[in-house]
Amino acid sequence: MRVMAQMAMVMNLDKCIGCHTCSVTCKQAWTNRSGVEYVWFNNVETRPGQGYPRQYEDQERWRGGWTLNKRGRLTLKAGGRARKLLTIFANPKLPSIGDYYEPWTYDYETLTDAPLQEHTPVARPRSLISGKYMKVSWSANWDDDLGGSAETGERDVVLREVSEKVKLEFDQTFMFYLPRICEHCLNPSCAASCPSGAIYKRTEDGIVLVDQDRCRGWRMCVTGCPYKKVYFNHRTGKAEKCTFCFPRVEVGIPTVCSETCVGRLRYIGLMLYDVDKVLDAASTPDDTDLYEAQRGVFLDPHDPEVIAAAERDGVPRDWIEAAQRSPIWALINTYKVALPLHPEYRTMPMVWYIPPLSPVVDVVRDTGHDAENAGNLFAAIDALRIPVDYLAQLFTAGDPAPVDAVLRRLAAMRSYMRDLNLGRDPDEAIPARVGMTGEQIYEMYHLLALAKYDARYVIPAAHAEDAHKLEELATECSLDYEGGPGMTGWGPFGETSGGAAPIAVENFHMLRQRQTSDVPAGREHLRGRVNLLNWDGKGLPEGLFPPRGGDEGPGPGGTNPPADSGAAETEPKP
Amino acid sequence: MTATGPSMYSGAPAHQVTTTDTLLWVALPYVVIAVFVLGHVWRYRYDKFGWTTRSSQLYESRLLRVGSPLFHFGILVVLLGHIGGLVVPKRWTTAAGVSEHMYHVTAVALGTVAGLCTLAGLAILIYRRRTVGPVFSATTRNDKLMYAVLTLVILLGLSATVAANLLGGGYDYRETVSPWFRSVFFLHPRAGSMAGVPILFRLHALSALLLFTIWPFTRLVHMLTAPVGYLTRPYIVYRSHDTTLGRRPPRRGWDLPR
Ligand code: HEM
Ligand code: SF4
Ligand code: SF4
Fold it and tell me: I need a surface site. Which of A49, A73, A278, A371 has the fewest CB within 10 A?
C-alpha cells in the first residue's frame, strides 16, 4: 500500500440552477487573456445537450482516455507512444476551433464614435480569431436550457445510447445542468499523452498541472483528455488547463468556482487512495464495474492501518485529520450518493456528482401527486426509466442499479425530513428501505441541504510548517503594512528577501488596491514587481521592464501605451 | 595535429585560397556554430516559455494534415541524408563494400524524392499560412524570415543536386564539401576544399549557414526538443510542488539563494 492524498470535488446537481456564475468567475480569474478566449476551465452544460466542445463524449470519434487492448492491458485510446510520435506533425484527432466555438467580441467603439445619424448604431460581432466580422452561430453553451434542442438534440452522444423513445420526447421529460471542470484524474490520460512530460500530477494533493516552461506545444494532451479539459492557447502555443485554483487551495480556501457558486453545491475535500491499486482498477474488464473498482482504490482515513501507512508515506498529520472530516469521503463512501462522471473513460476522475432527483420529483408533482411521499417517489424512480438510464450513461457506464440506489436515498431523505420539519413523528421505515438509519439520513441532510461553509470545504493548507502564514492571512497582521513583504515583495534586505508572499495573498492585495484606489493598481505600490496573474496579456504592465534611460519612469506620461490601447498586443513568440 | 590529418583530404583538388574563401569557409562556420549553440543556450535560459511549435492546427487542419507530415518526414530524411553524406567519410562506405556508383544512385534518388516531398510540403504549408486567415494573422515577421531562408536553402540544395546530377555529369561532393565540413569540426578547417566547388553547392552551404544562424531565434527551436524521451518515460509524471510552483518557506536575507 502506498498512500497518496487527492484534492477532490463533489457537485450536487439537484442544486445547480445553471446560472454560469462559476464559469464567469473562473474565466475572470484564469482565462481572460488573449489566446484563451474560447477556453472555459469551468463550463456548465444543459443536459440533454451536446456539451462543450461539441460531442466531446463521442470517444469513437475523439479517441480520448484509455481503453483495454486485446490482451486486456490498459492503453491510450488514441494510440501508444510510437503512434503518438509518428502522428505528431499533424494530430489526427484534434478538435478544431469550430468544435469549441469561434470567440468574438463586439465593435463597441461604433456605439460611441458613430456620427449623428438616423439609425441607432449597432455593435457588430467581430471574430477574436480572424478579426473579421462574423455571424455568431455557436458558443460554449449554445444549447443552454435546451435552446434549439429540437434541431441539435439528437446529436447528444449520451442520448444515442438510451432507447429510441427518449430521443423523440426527451426535452419534455427532463433537463438538468452539468457543471464541469478538469477531473484531476488518478490516472490522467492527458499526462500520459504529453510527449514532453510537461503535465504532471502533484504528489501532495494530486492536482494535475501543465508546466508552462516544459510544454512544447505538441498538443497531444488535448486529444488524450476524454473530457476535453486541456486547452491549447493559440497565442502562446502552450496547453492550459484547470488548476484547481492551487494558489487558493494551498492556503486553505476553496476554488473560485466553488466559492462563488450560487447554489452552494460544490464540496471540496481530501481522499486518501492507494496508488499501487490505480492501474489494476483502471484495467477492470467490465465498464460497469469501474465505479466500484475506483471506490476500491480509496482508503478509509479512520482505519489505523491506513493512518500508519499514510504517516509512513509522508502525508502530514493535519492532512490525515482533514481526510477524516472530508465531505468527499462522506458523500462517496458513507452515504454513497456521489458518482464519477464517465468512469468508462478509465482515467479515474476525481470530480464526482450527486445525480439530480429533480427530474423525478418534477414528474410526480406535475401529475398531481405528493412529491414528498416516499412511496410515490420510489415508484416514480422505478417507472421513469428515461432519466435513470440517461444518468446511468453519464455516471456508471450504463448500469442503472447504482443510480437507482442513489436516487432512492435522496428520495428517502426528502420524505423522512419532511416529517421531521413538520414536527411529525419520523417514519423509521423510510430510511430502512434504503439501508440507512434515521440518524444517518439526518447527517446526510445536514451535509446536503444545510451545507454549511465549513462542512462543504475541508481544505488543509499546503504545509503544516507554513501554518503561521495562514494566521497572518486570516488576521491581516504583518502582511499588509505599507512596505511589508505582502505588499511589495521587499523584505528588510532588499527585493525578495524574506521570501515571496503566497500568490493568493498577493492577488488579494492587488485586487483590493484596484477596487479601492483612484490611481491604477501598482502605480506606487508595486515598485518594480509585477503580478502577471492579473495581466490580461495586453499592454505593458508597469514594472515589467526597467524604465528607459533618462525617462523618469513608465506609465501615464511615460512611454507605455495605455493598457487597453491594443497597440501593444502581445506578439506570439517565435 | 589529429590522427585523421592530411590523408582525409588527399582527394581534394588543390585550389588557390583567397581571403574571401578563408572568411566564408573558416571564419564564418565558427561564428555560426557559436551563434547556434549559444543562441540555444540563451533561448533556453531566458525564454523557455517561448520554446514551442506554436501549432496552428486549432485554426486549420485539412491542409496541415497533408502538408506538415509531408514536409517533416521529407526534411528528416534529408537531414539523415546530409549526416550520411557529410559526416561519414567516403573511405568508410567504400570499405563497407558500397561502390561509388551504388552510393551515388541511392543518394540522388532518395535525396531527390525526399527533397521534392519537403518542397511540396513546404509549399502547402506556406500556401496555408498565406491563405487561411487566422493562420496568416498568427504569422509573425520572424516566421516570414524563417520561411524565406528555409525555402531558399531547400531550393538551392535541390537545384544543386538536379543541376549536377541530372543535367550535368554528376558531382561527387563527398570529395570536396564533406571533407571541408568534417574539417571544421576537427578544428582544422580546409578552405581549399570548398574553393573549387560548383557555385550552387557553395550557395546552398552559405544559405544553410544563414539558416543555422537564425535558427535559435525562430520557432525552429522545437526540433532540438524533439520528444524522444517519451518512448521510455513512465506514462504519468508525479512532481512535488515545493520544488516548483507556489509557496516556498520564507528565505531570509542572510540565507544563500537556493
Ligand atoms: C523530429 C523533430 C520535429 C518534430 C517532432 C516537429 C514537430 C512539429 C510540430 C508538432 C509542428 C506544429 C504543426 C502544427 O500543428 O501547426 C511543427 C511545425 C513546424 N516545423 Fe517541425 N518538427 C520537427 C523538426 C523540424 C525540422 C527539422 C524543421 C525544419 C528544418 C521543422 C520545421 C517546422 C516548420 C517550418 C513548422 C511550421 C509549420 C506551419 O505551421 O506552417 N520541424 N513541427
Ligand atoms: S480530466 Fe483533467 S486530469 Fe483528467 S485527463 Fe482530462 S485534463 Fe487530465
Ligand atoms: S455557480 Fe453553481 S449554481 Fe450556478 S451554474 Fe455554476 S455550479 Fe450551477
Answer: A73
Residues of B in contact with A473 (CB under 8 A): none
The pTM for the full model equals 0.84
With a 6 Å cutoff on the Cβ, whether A531 touches ligand 3 is no
B55 interfacial to chain A (CB closer than 8 Å): yes
Q: Which residues contact B214 (CB under 8 A, 6 or more apart)?
A: B145, B146, B149
Residue B6 predicted with pLDDT over 80 = no
Share of chain A above pLDDT 70, in %: 77
A400-431: buried (b, 16+ CB within 10 Å) or exposed (e) per residue? bebbbbbbbbbbbbbbbbbeeeeeeebbeebb
Q: What is the rounded distance in angstroms from the CA atom of residue A385 to the CA atom of residue A165?
A: 11
- Confidence band (pLDDT; 50, 70, 90) for B14? low
SS (H, E, C) A136-159: CCCCCCCCHHHCCHHHHHHHCHHH
Q: For residue B184, what is the domain's CATH number?
A: 1.20.950.20
User: Do the Cβ atoms of A85 and B249 come within 8 Å?
Assistant: no
Bridge-based pairing of strands A74-76 and A199-202 is unpaired
Rounded distance, CA B126 to CA B122, Å?
6
Condensed to tens digits (0 to 9), the pLDDT of residues A441-465 reads 999 999 999 999 999 999 998 754 4
* B8 lies in some domain: no
Quick check: A42 and A242 in contact, CB under 8 A?
yes
A188 lines ligand 2 (CB under 6 A): yes
Q: Which three cell numbers stand for residue A132?
A: 473579421
Q: Are A460 and A250 in contact (CB under 8 A)?
A: no
List, in order, residues 6 or more apart from A524 with CB less than 8 Å away: none
Residue bearing the bigger pLDDT, A171 or A444: A444
What is the Cα–Cα distance from A112 to A114, expressed in whole angstroms? 6
Give the range among A70-84, A103-117, B211-225 with minimum mean pLDDT: A103-117
In a domain, B257, yes or no: no
How many C-beta atoms surround the C-beta of residue A481 within 10 A? 11
Per-residue pLDDT of B161-191, as tens digits, reads 888 877 777 788 888 899 999 999 999 888 8
Structural domains counted in chain B: 1
Domain that holds residue B27: 19-231
The yes-or-no verdict on residue B245 having pLDDT over 60 is no
pLDDT digit string, tens, across residues A18-57 = 999 999 999 999 999 989 999 999 999 998 889 999 999 9
Domains of chain A: 3-101+140-324 (no CATH), 356-436 (1.10.3650.10)
Q: What is the pLDDT of residue A511?
A: 66
Best residue among A227, A228, A341, A345 to mutate for probing ligand 2, ranked by most atoms within 8 Å of CB: A227
Strand partners, A166: none
